[in-house]
Amino acid sequence: MTTMREHSVKLREKRGGVTRAAAVLLVLIGVMLVLIAIPGWKVYRYRAEKTACEQAMKSARDGLIIEYLGRWDAGSVQEAMKTLDEVLPERANICPAGGTVYLVRGDNGIFEPVCGLHDSDKARRTRLNASRAKDLLTEALREARRDSEEEPESVEIQLNGKALECVRVQEEPYLRRGTRTTNGYEGVVAFYGLKGEGDFAKSAGKKGEICFFVYADEDYCAIWHAKDEWTGDAY
């Protein structure tokens, strides 16, 4: 016969089990809510950063227009960059998300600043980032060779405020479109080949130099060969 004390102990154990189960359920619900909210938060953050970036670019553009007002010749990119530095000394930090700022000559002959992350012309954005990434890779390889006689398997560069790994390959990977529509790839990727290695043995250029480079983001792809310059769906 169950005593009152034993009944009380069993009741507490039962309630404790229910309480623990409820706590676990609440934790699981909380985790699910966070997972659901993350994509929405990323979209909100991107839109906020894009709006702030557009305002900053407008200020930079207005400054360049004022500087070049009345001139028949807008000068070189280097002159425009110098002017932009004077208009916005903190140009490197102009984009809140760390986007790289490029200068593109507009229809009126005046250079206009565009962001490597938020430019509305996605194909142009890919072209600018690809060209910049190749230049940074060339410099990074030059520095790596000073420290070691062996060619690195990959080189890390900084583009649009983030690290981008450029991977050395022996043959050209099948990348013709953006990573969103290409199986096996995601995000932003970059690959390069050196003259004299693998399938690039007979490529144009000097041995050890970059003879192939491909850069792809989610939307477009840009491909460079030493013999025929840039191609890809971004062009």
Secondary-structure topology with pairs:
Blueprint: H1 4-68, H2 77-87, E1 101-105, E2 111-115, H3 122-147, E3 154-159, E4 162-168, E5 189-194, E6 210-216, E7 221-225, E8 229-231
Helix pairs in contact: 1-2
**Number of beta-strand segments:** 8
Strand order of the largest sheet: 3-4-5-6-7-8
| Strand residue percentage | 15-25%
Taking pLDDT < 50 over at least 5 consecutive residues as the criterion, the unreliable ranges are none
The whole-angstrom Rg is 27 Å
Number of helices: 3
End-to-end separation in angstroms reads: 87 Å
Q: Roughly how much helix do the residues carry, as a percent range? A: 40-55%
Q: What order do the SSEs take from the amino end to the carboxyl end, as H and E?
A: HHEEHEEEEEE
Task: Give the overall shape, derived from the CA principal axes.
Answer: globular
**Overall pLDDT level:** 80
Main sheet specs? 6 strands, mixed
SS-derived structural category: alpha+beta
